[in-house]
Amino acid sequence: MNAPLRRSGVVILVLFGLIFANLNWIQAYKADEYRTNYRNDRVMIAEYERPRGVIEAGGQALAENKETADNLKYLRVYPKDEIYAPVIGYKPVGLGAVGIEASENDFLSGQSDKLLADRISNMFTGEDTSGGNVLLSLNTKAQETAWKQMTNNERGVKKGAAVAIDPRTGAIQAMVSMPSFDPNPLVSHDQAAAKKAYDKLNGDDDQPLLNRAVASTLPPGSVFKVIVSAAALQSNYDLDTEIEAGAVYREGGATIRNSEDEVCPGSQITLKDALRTSCNTGFSRLGVKLGADKIKGTAKAFGFEDEALRIGDLESVDNGLAVAASRTGNITNPDGSTDTAALAQSSLGQRDVRMTPLQGALMAATVANGGDQKRPYLVQKLLGPDRRTIYTAEPKTLREPINADVAGKLKEMMVSVVEGGTGKNAQIDNYTVGGKTGTAQNAEGANPHGWFIGFAFNSKGEAVSAACVMLENVPGGHASAEAARIAGRIMKAAAGQGGD
């Protein structure tokens, strides 16, 4: 045999060896991965052989199943369309799930270790029971009131978010994001049609797939004054402590003015009245006097800079809807010293301060609950296919940014905002309501964002709800007035006083 033939023979043997090794690698190490891959048609068919568990709230099914005559036996159906979509998410064919459908996927599909007994039982009975069911904490009246009020707001705003929380437990009572989307076309068994529907939503400039309640961070404006007030109260200020104010305040190149000439024109104003009237010059001066470390430290204690928070069930704190970190931004010069102009503006919730609506609701809930900030959650219960309870949420403290004394003083200050200040639109008959409005400037020439954070106490002195409403680019002045009105309606519904 000549040399070229020998070389060819060696090459062929090596190639056969590589093919043999690859086959063994696939059979020994990769077979299970390929067998269970969601792109495998046989896997998809098997997945749809039994119904996925139901997602529900308040006795209403929010995600359920419809039997079909095609290869995939069950179709996922979302009866409430847009209202709950940013929370529920969707489970498309051949792709990963989104929202609660994703975070509770193992339980809904029946693959969770919590349902091992059910799977063993099925082996003996031959039955093919459904996956587990997920009961959410959402108050359907509060949720649907929030959706109606947001989408039919009196200013014609098209983008925004609302969140309501039970301050005593951390249970999410409502979570709305607008614009929203109909998840039903996204789970069609016609994958081409589903992709077309997704591409249209994903390409929409208004970002309907974005859950603004947890993923959107915008300048909060004057609601940040609650943080500055907390910092002052922790630094031995009191409600009647007078702080410097005035019509104009110039600091390090920044010029601070009040929203209207009649707001705190005098040289002094009490801390309580500064919050009630939303005195810009007073809070800018106060923030500079307290210092950047104190302001940033207090904000962090309330939850700013938290990059790990997720909202789902309290057993799996690493699972659930991801929450974008709220930020106080950079307040330093290149040499590391404090940029006092940035600090003056940041103390008003401007400059580089950014906040999610969820963070705003947590701030209000913390004050209402005496300084004890509960971990927010969406999953109230996990129920087996036979409706037996497998898990029930037990409230947990997330952090304690302020003590009860400071919380009590903040509560009094925030109540004054609603009873006689800028937040009157949030008032609810027979309830004690406190809060803080915020009007946030953003892009040059654009309308400001309108914010409101607040809480409601019933006649028994129980904190029944805390809410945050954010409306983007509100036309017509007094941007926060409509946010306050909507928040009042949501909290009223959460308290069981009907929805509208």
What layout of secondary structure does this protein have?
Elements: H1 3-36, H2 41-47, E1 55-57, E2 60-67, E3 74-77, H3 85-88, H4 100-103, H5 105-109, H6 116-125, E4 133-136, H7 140-151, E5 160-165, E6 172-178, H8 191-202, H9 212-215, H10 225-233, E7 242-244, E8 248-251, E9 254-257, E10 268-270, H11 271-277, H12 280-290, H13 292-302, E11 310-311, E12 321-322, H14 340-346, H15 357-368, E13 373-374, E14 379-383, E15 389-392, E16 397-399, H16 404-420, E17 432-440, E18 449-457, E19 463-471, H17 479-494
Parallel strand pairs: 1-4
Antiparallel strand pairs: 1-2, 2-3, 4-14, 5-6, 5-19, 7-10, 8-9, 11-12, 13-16, 14-15, 17-18, 18-19
Helix count equals 17
Poorly predicted spans: none
Strand order in the sheet with the most strands: 3-2-1-4-14-15
The largest sheet is: 6 strands, mixed
Strand content: 15-25%
Count of beta strands? 19
Assign the structural class, choosing from mainly alpha, mainly beta, alpha/beta, alpha+beta, or little secondary structure.
alpha+beta
User: Mean pLDDT across all residues, rounded?
Assistant: 91
Shape: globular
Radius of gyration: 27 Å
Distance between the termini: 93 Å
Helix % is 25-40%
Brief descriptors of the model:
500 residues; alpha+beta; single chain; five-stranded antiparallel beta sheet; 36% helix; 17 helices
Give a quick rundown of the structure.
It contains 17 helices and 19 strands.
